[in-house]
Amino acid sequence: MNGMKNLPVRMARWSAGHPWRAIVSWLLFVVLCLGVGITVGGNPATTEDFRIGEAGRAEALAAEGGLQQRPVERVLITARPGSGRLDLTAADAAAKDVADRMRGLDEVRSVADPVHAANGTAVRVDVTMNGPELEGKKHVAPLLAQTAAVRKANPDLRVEETGSPSISKGVDKLRGDDLSRTEVIALPGTLITLLLVFSSIVMALVPLLLALSSIAAAIGLSMLASHVFPDAGVGTNVILLIGLAVGVDYTLFYLKREREERARADGRLSPQAVVELAAATSGRAVILSGLAVAVSSATLFLADDVIFSSIATGAIVVTLVAVLSSLTVLPALLAKLGERAERRAVRREARAVKRGRTPRPRKQPKTGAGRLTTAVLSLVGKRPAAALTVTVIAMLALAAPVLGLKLTDMGRETHSRSIAAMQVYDRLNASFPELKSMHQVVVRADADRSSEVTAALRELAADVKDDARLSGTSQLFTSPDKRVSMLQLQVPYYVSTDQAQSSLKDIRRTYVPETVGKVAGAETAVTGDVARYTDYPTHQQQKLPLIIGALLLVTFVMTVWAFRSLVLALVGVLLNLLSAAASLGVLVLVFQDTWAEGLLDFDSTGSIGSRVPLFLFVILFGLSMDYQVFVISRVREAALNGVPTRKAVIDGIGSSAGVVTSAAVVMVTVFASFAALHLIEMKQIGFSLAVAVLLDAFVIRMLILPALMLLLGEANWWPSHGIRKARDTTPAPRTLEKVS
To answer: Which residues pair with 485 in a beta bridge?
Structure first.
């Protein structure tokens, strides 16, 4: 632990002693990271990386036989609104024009014959693209251009296009626009908060600029890391979300402590010496906090899911880079700013003396607790048991809706209808309901059993033909080597409906075992839209206990390591669980019902995205350790200086309340900006994290933690005897001497 304490001091001493060298080195590091990352390029996740559960196993079997899912676009031709019935002759001519144009494109693998809707209101043309399923969005532009040309040539018809590639392209554009919007909200909001904290534009810009430089370096490093952990397309989002929050927070912790030490020294210490004093306390807290966030994020690798691996990689990289910036370039900036402040103070005093006036005392920043904090802690100090009881009951009440939590995969049908392709998607499914979803039964067997497998799949198709939950239509495909066969069954219901879900269960549990399941040596699995939708949340629910268990263990071990106290470690675990449960309960209350739709601009799916609880628990546990380490470090510091535990709790929490509140406001500003996004899962993540930080900073750290620590008294430090030994050996305080 002494090494941990000495490391930030040594780094701060070098940085403050060689400020320009440290600043230039940091800028070169950022440019190098970004330059190398761009040069090498990122490694995006492939279709194979996303395979989960039985659906993923079935897709792997299908791919062996060349029967894998391919990107498909569908051109829909209908009558223009208000123009009466569809002219089928004109529609057929337009469909032929579409087909001819599409066949001439290098991006197109095949074009199916036009299909008429059963009610005669629409004609569609299915276009299968070359390449993997996930690559379609990169090459769909020429197809959209040809559809636009046919639309222009047929002004009396509505000719439009949709499909996974065009929807994905639209989602990516919407995500990019949303991220630009979050920057417009988060950056000014963060700057205003920092201006209120420091009352100085220069000091306010330091945390923001360091956070932005850390984000830039982390983006470059994440491109390199993606060659080990493929990027699922969410890495940059996570780096922006976490990077701005922790980057500003770590700098804020350091800056506030440096100002306190400078105020305490009152000009008797050089700026370099003041920075070293700040590094000995806040520097160590920043390292512990950063490690906590990084290690907590690493538990997401246990999810065995490329999306969570991508999230973990982004969070770990940007957190460690933010810690590095706080330990290297920040002391240099503080030393230069301190020297500038000293020179200005000396010049003011010299001018005052020259004019025969008494120099004004130097204005010092506030270092104690504010009036509101003092009042709250006074009430908690008088009745800690009552305060603890009331706040815990309130938090448990907020957590109660978790009992009704429903997790689903936020698939295609939940995307915003501001995406043009999604509007066409709705019209396509209205005209061709059999396209809403599908099941795919995949079978792998020896080639000499191909006829037996085919017969069994035909029997299965006959068994489900009259099932009202299916469309009654089916397609049978066999690989060229006759080892893999696939039966595709169309489902005229969306994947989230009871009909689609129950039909999947029956196919897996009854129809498959009674038909192809009886073929000796055959391996079977069921995939398709419904299976993908079902298997992903199931996989997350299975991994959730493992990851939460790992999080609890990490929190416990790191707290014991930091403070040598089993009691504080247990307190940290319980408070993190309470905070996470309450914020998840609020999330369920808001998003699983419809009452807040207008307020937050969303359409409720009656469920929570399957990725949200895991992301919330992991990130919240890491960020909570920020506050935990910083607050308890101040309490422990006071106790080690001989202050009785009760007074140490009140003084430590009171003196840290300002910076914790400021840090919380910054985080809430950043997270709340993500709650304004159109993508429902990102909206839920941003909202839940904003609520979690508010509860953690203002309820947990200001009410529950002090009440609990006051009730525990000396037991807080068990089994460590360090506090008692420190009190026995604490020397009398000495006055500071001038250090140059």
So the answer is: 443, 478
Residue 157 · residue 90 · CB < 8 Å: yes
CATH 1.20.1640.10 fits 1-41+200-348, yes or no: yes
428, 412, 530, 514: which is closest to 470 by C-alpha? 530
| pLDDT tens digits along 710-723 | 999 989 888 877 67
Report the candidate in 408, 406, 425 with the shortest Cα–Cα distance to residue 171.
425
506 φ/ψ sector (left φ>0, alpha ψ -120 to 50, else beta): alpha
CA torsion angle 659 660 662 668 (round to 10): 160
Q: CATH 3.30.70.1430 region(s) of the chain?
A: 68-169
Reduced 3-state DSSP string for 319-344:
HHHHHHHHHCHHHHHHHHHHHHHHHH
Model pLDDT for residues 29-60, shown as the tens digit of each residue: 999 999 999 999 999 998 888 899 999 999 99
Q: Nearest CA to 259 among 203, 205, 206, 322?
A: 203
| Residue spans of alpha helices (H) in 355-492 | 371-382, 384-399, 420-431, 450-464
Nearest one of 654, 623, 627, 628 to 563, comparing CA atoms:
628
Question: In the CATH scheme, what architecture does the domain 68-169 have?
Answer: 2-Layer Sandwich (3.30)
